[in-house]
Structures are given as C-alpha cells and as structure tokens.
Hints:
The structure is a single chain. By secondary structure, the protein is α+β, with helices and mostly antiparallel strands. It folds into 2 domains: 36-131, no CATH class; 163-416, Ferritin (Up-down Bundle). The protein is 38% helix and 11% strand. It contains 7 helices and 12 strands. The chain has helices at residues 163-167, 205-239, 243-271, 291-319, 323-352, 358-369, 393-416, and strands at residues 49-56, 63-70, 83-86, 93-97, 111-112, 125-128, 147-149, 154-156, 174-175, 178-179, 184-185, 276-277. A hairpin with a 2-residue loop joins strand 9 and strand 10 (178-179). Mean pLDDT is 80; it is low at 117-121, 159-167, 374-381 and 421-426.
Amino acid sequence: MRRRAVVDCPSLLPRGDGGVSCRVNFPVPGSRCSSDSDCADAGLGPRATCESTFACSPAGGGGGYFCGCTAGCVRDSDCPTSTICVCGDPIGHCVRATCASRSSCDPGCDCIDPITDRDRTFFHSFDCQTPPDKCAGSADCLSGFPCVDNGNGHACFDPATDVGRSCSVARAFLVRGHVRLAESAKRSDWMTSTGPTPDALALSARVRGGLAVHWARIGLMEHASIAAFARFVMHLLAAGAPPDLVRASQEAMGDETEHTRLAFALASTFEGRPLGPGPLSINGALDGFNVDEFVATLLREGCIGETMAAIEAHEALQGATDPAVRSVLSTLARDELRHAELAWRTLSWLLASERLDRERLRVQAARVLSEAPSAPCAVAAEEDLTSFGIVGAMRRFELRRLAITRVVEPCLLTLLSNCRASPTTA
C-alpha cells in the first residue's frame, strides 16, 4: 500500500447494518457494543463505530475478539501523533506512520505499508522506502511471490535462493536474511535407523529418486538447525537468559542432531548409497549481538519456523502409511512442537524481563509477518507421495497460511496486548 498524497477520506456513515455484523469470541462486560449507535457516547468522537477489537480475555489466559467502539477518521488531523488516517469502509482508521506521503521521503521513494492483508491492522505501519529497496509489495513481483526484507532492503522473494524460507520443513538457519545449508555428501556416519526400514525395492527408480531428494533436503535443514540452535544458545547467554531456557536450547540442539541422522537414514535407503551432510559455512552468522535482530531471528526461525515445522510434521504423519517414515515423523512432530514452545517462552521472557518492550516487538513482528509468502512454492507437477511423508505444495502453503493467521498472529496479539497467556497461547 503506497501513500503518495495526503487526502481526505470518504465517510460511509451511517452504514446500512448499523454495525451489527461485528464478530465476537467472548463478551467483555461494560465495554461491548451491539451497533454503531451504542458508540455515540463512548468519548471517541462523532465517527466511532462498533468493530471487532482484540483484548485480553476477562477470564484470563490469552485474548480474543469482542465488539468494541473504535474511533474513526477522515483526515490525518483526526489521529494522534505518529499516526495517519487510512481510508476504509465505512470510515478511515488511524495507523502508525513515520511518513505522511511520498513528499516526506527521499526522491523516488514512496511512503509504504508492505502488509497487504488488511485484517492485520494491529501490525500496520507506513515507512519510507530506502534506496536499496527493489519492491514495495507483492504486486511489484512476478509469479505472485512476496516482497520481503532480505536484510539489505526489500526485494522480491526468489524461490531459487530463498526456497528454505517458504518450503522448509525445519527451523531454518538464516544468515543475513538467507537460508544457509550444507550440501549432501557420500558418508555413512550421519545415519541412524533404530526402527523399521522402508521397502524401497518395491518402488520405481523415479519415485525412489524423488524420495531420496526430499529426505536429504530434510536432513540438510535439520543439520542447519543444529547451527541455528548453537547460535541461539549464545544469544541467550548474551541476553542474560535463565538456565532453563539455555538448557532447553541445548537439548533442542541434540534433538536436531538426531533428526538429521534419521532423515539421512531414509534418504540413504531410497538413494541406495550412504548420504550425509557436508561442511556448513557459518561465515557472517555471528556478527555481534543486537536485541532487535535477535528478536527478528527468534520470530523467523522459532515462533514462525518451528510452529510451521511442527504443524507440517503432524500433517505428514497423518497421511504417512510406511512404518519407517511414520517412526521418523512421529519423532519430528513431537520435538518440533517442543521447540516452537521454547521460542514462545523465550519471547515471553524477553518481555517480562523488560529486555524488550512491546512497541519494539510490534515493529519486528510487522517486519517479519510482511515476509510471509503469498504464493505456494514453485514446483513441477507432483506425484502423490503422501504415504511416504510428503505434503503437497498447495496443502503445505495452506497449512502455513493457517499457521500464521490462527496460531502466530493470535499469540503475538496476546503478548502485545499484555494478556496473561495460557499454556496454549504462549
């Protein structure tokens, strides 16, 4: 969304249904509304409407939506400092901004909000583009891929180089915004198989080859996750984290080591020769400690990456029928869920210890959520290999979309709203 000029917004008030279509998850006594007319005396001005609003649950333990009165606007002067009036239906609403229009920015740069999903109003913020930016939104990119922050400005998502960000099945090891992986190598010391072995001889050579590539890719991602957790432990120490978080992170590193060996055992079976990971470059992975970048990495790798990995592993397990594959997936699903919980616990601790304030978290969350892919991974025609633990690209993309909207965003809203989170929300 680009704001190239300061203009007054139209008002469609009074609206036909009077605001009675507001959605609600729970009632909030004393602060709810059932129509726009209930907001006339709410002290929010003459343009207040009855809208869905996020708040802490009155019973404690997280948050949800209730129908509350919300201030409207038609021009920037109706809004508080550091916000602008963004036009909407039936009335404009105030959004955080560091720029008012294109004229506030350097020549050739727009005042933009990269989040295109208008339901995410909590995270919206308008800021000036910078010279390194190559795009302002997914509309500027080919094939429907999103405009992402790659650590050096905004650029169109490249499935050839950034494939791990949207198509990985484990915690990604990100270095300066890009996924870092080793390459497969001929070696047998990274193979572990304590359970059944898949009957690869019953499969065609083409299917075996596809399964070998798939499980080797998972093995490389799990291998990179070891490095991600090693860096995470050092960052926790730099932040002064308590011992339970440090210990849990070290245990997670051991989990990822075992995951790597299990995945490469399957890949080797399907390939018909021993496979393992080669050397992993860590150049640039430890460029000092910065709380904001630590939080951004925690959100990408942990709160989002591990949450998605846990959901995908459970989905793959539900469809798998091969005993050997099911054995591996059950381990991955169990451990990735625990790793996701660790990420959310760490984020909660950063807020509770005041090492991070909620406004800085909101800025980082908006930045990271804007990178969520708007299209499935670019893949060739797929064969149904659900029984061997492969989730199709379209289903994987849908799972990731649901993970963002139904898990990640509600958890972030709970933390940002200072709710007393329950074990299921943080």
